[in-house]
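Dear colleague,

Following up on Tuesday's group meeting, I ran the structure prediction for the two-component complex that the binding team flagged. I've pasted the input sequences exactly as they went in, so you can double-check that nothing got truncated or mislabelled along the way. The structure tokens for the whole assembly follow below. Feel free to forward this to whoever is handling the docking comparison.

Inputs:
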Amino acid sequence: MKKNSFSYLFLALTLALYIFTFLNSPEHGLIALQKSSLILKEVMPILLLVLVLTALLNILVPSKKIAKYLGEKSGIKGWFIAVLGGLFSHGSSYVWYPILQDFRLHGAKDGLIISFFYARAIKLPWLPMMISYFGLSFTLVLTLYILIASVLQGLLADRLLTPLNNTNL
Amino acid sequence: MMKDKTNRFLLLEVMTKALKLFFSILPMLLATIGLVGLLQTYVSSEMLHALFRGDILVDTLMGTFSGGVSVGPPIISYIIGGELMDAGISVYAISAFILSWVSLGLVQLPFEASVLGLRFMLIRNLLALIFALLISFALGLTLSLLS
């Protein structure tokens, strides 16, 4: 199935679920719709920024540069960029999909992208809240383990995933 | 004058490309956000509470599963995790729940596969799932050693 038809099918299924919900319980349908529009409002500014960045990157930054910093031979520098990028990136994961795919198409290693994703599990702005709920030791140990796991996952992914050019699934 | 024209052309090119990208992901984005709204409406914290029974292994698996299907800002997982802790649920299950809440996303899987590829999505999520369990056990053990 083509990527686009799959997207429209998924959208149609979601719409069908909403119609079903509205027919069964209009009140719940309305709440779901309100929650969704609130999320849409929240993600839109970051998404637009990410899309403009993706377009800029696509036009201005040559593939060689990306491959140098995030490619096969990026070394420790690459891991550092991926983990730090994950730590400081904001918003829902899905707003980052387009730019990350663009990095991959320009030669970034899959392992680094996976490392970026896992480092996002550390939510810097929420750490004080986590400490107040679960204590300092819990928060520190969990944060440290996530950092280690993000690199380990990247290394494992590099073994499991072949370069993008060979697998276009 | 020439530079001004080049800049304007560049801006136009960037905007066109960004808009094209936006419309290419829009159906999947709307579907994902729509599903998140539905899940947030129907999955309550009471429902999540009911999944935990007091058995470390089963609760940790339940924590991973329920965190993976739940959606919302991390603070919600802390609030539910805090309530579970007060209810005497193990730290293994609570950390698995919090971790899979932020690292797994069942609702986002189709979107992730459509942009980054099916194989990438499967491997990333499988690794995140395994590591949610590993980290929970390592964290539980470390904390009991520290105390």
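The longest helix of chain A spans residues 26-60.

Cheers,
M.
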